[in-house]
Amino acid sequence: MFLENPLVETIRNGIKDIGSRLLDLICPPVCPFCNTLKPDNEPVCPECAVKLATPAGEYCRRCGGRRYKIFRETMDCERCRTTKFFFDRAIVLGEYEKEIRKL
Fold it and tell me: What is the pLDDT of residues 66-76, one digit of tens each?
């Protein structure tokens, strides 16, 4: 079994860091929506992250719809009561418009 040498690990991490910085010079990390520089390890810049936040409001727990009347006792909508879906539940990440539509 090969035991890792702390010096070898430090050198390996240093090379990875240099490679990452060189890649950032060639292809900088930019937000896909506004083309501004974004923080490392983040998919979008902070301003666009706020725009992408799930809007407040009631969504149907089954289809994810918001534009239909939602019945409070079951939290499903009138569309779900009349339509057969081939899934059990939808998770709402946001409305399919503006930034999410671009994405």
Answer: 767 777 777 77
